[in-house]
Amino acid sequence: LGLHRAGSVGSSHIVMAAALEAGNLAKALPIYADIILKPALQPDQFELSRELVLQELAGLDDDPRQKVMLKLYERFYPAPFGTSPLGTAEQLGALTADKCRELIKKHFNLSRTIFAVAGKYDFGDLCRQIETLFDTDQPDAQPDISAGKSAGKYLHQHHDGAQVHIGLMTPTVPVSSPDYYNAMAAVAVLSGGMSARLFTEVREKRGLCYAVGAKYHTLKNFAGIASYAGTTPDKAQQTADIIIEQFKLLADGISTDEIGRAKVGLKSSLILQS
Amino acid sequence: LGLHRAGSVGSSHIVMAAALEAGNLAKALPIYADIILKPALQPDQFELSRELVLQELAGLDDDPRQKVMLKLYERFYPAPFGTSPLGTAEQLGALTADKCRELIKKHFNLSRTIFAVAGKYDFGDLCRQIETLFDTDQPDAQPDISAGKSAGKYLHQHHDGAQVHIGLMTPTVPVSSPDYYNAMAAVAVLSGGMSARLFTEVREKRGLCYAVGAKYHTLKNFAGIASYAGTTPDKAQQTADIIIEQFKLLADGISTDEIGRAKVGLKSSLILQS
């Protein structure tokens, strides 16, 4: 069918996507229904997949920047929401194709699945086909998972390398809040390009590290502003101090210029995002 | 002015960019003319900048994936074209603000500079302003730098980590060639999403590594297809063998489906790129 497939597993969603010629849409959907409703999970394929995730997990040791961000989310969000989508070596070791099939049966919930199509297609035809393909006796929506405690505060993990990788995260409003755009603007003031505060204060004025930034990170009901800096051991404390100071200084006010830049930045990233 | 600045140094170009409100364009240009024609390079700022580049260079040890790609370009392209824009610690140690000023005077060439604006502006006014601001007695275009030899072949660099990082690169046509789109399609067949050959053969069928891909990389007169794989020591040889095999198999033909997918992929990335 000439499908251009894509897929990803996040901490709260699994995404399956494809780009294809409009004329092939009706032929592609039954394949996706099959993948979603009746995953084969053949033993040899399952073993290969587990091997790959274990490799990816081990590979994090060669990618300390990603590792520190995964650790940060894990400690910041109330358990189990911050859990890394990769899991742990122990969890992966205990997984079998049967357990996986059971998980899918219990927790993949079509009543909470979003289906989106963009392009040239007939809305009525598409809805009829989707309703036929996914007409299953799936259980109703599961109750929401209840949130535990977040680990929070400090974690120091030893790492043999020339650098120190710092991750910092502070709570803010989730995407559903009326203050969502205020939070986004605050992050843009901290970290929107070379004129933003973290870049100017940490990098340009003090030369503390070449990589520093902040971003808005959200799950459905929780959100935070996460900051990353890669620096050297002798400059790590000052880097952390200045980042925290810059987070606090946001409360003292933001200039008209900064808000102007933040708006331009947010608008252009909205227009240019795919 | 609420400028949203951006800048980068590549192996053949320096890029300076800004996003701003259309009404501020005429006020921003004189500032850019100043930055380009009369860089201050104050001693303390210069030292800070050198420090940051040295830090970035040291930081590569914590980012073996980027490190292997920089080494790959360095050996693949004829000297000096593959030189990393970061330089070496020795070169950075020998650099002074005065030498830097001299380099800029000798080699920054306005007759070879491209100026681009998108948005709401008056073309005539803009051209007049640019001509006034940049009306200098700059030298004519310098002769092209002559290409030396490429180091090529194998390089093994020791690395303490759980993974082996493999970089492979083979010559192809540069962007000016009539075969450019054929080269891009070939790369898309090798590495355009989850249905592409490298992903399928190296990852899905054999589980050799979770990260594998190829990309087209070009300078003005030279280009190559570069491949990266991150794998484990016991699977490194087979990973390299299969990648090389997949590069060779391209010559045996490409199916209609694959070309269809490649076209869809290239078109959508063209539409979605900023």
TrEMBL record, chains A, B:
GO terms for molecular function: metal ion binding. Residues 95-263 form the Peptidase M16 C-terminal domain. It holds the Pfam family Peptidase_M16_C. Gene3D superfamilies: Metalloenzyme, LuxS/M16 peptidase-like. PANTHER family: HYPOTHETICAL ZINC PROTEASE, METALLOPROTEASE. This is Peptidase M16 C-terminal domain-containing protein.
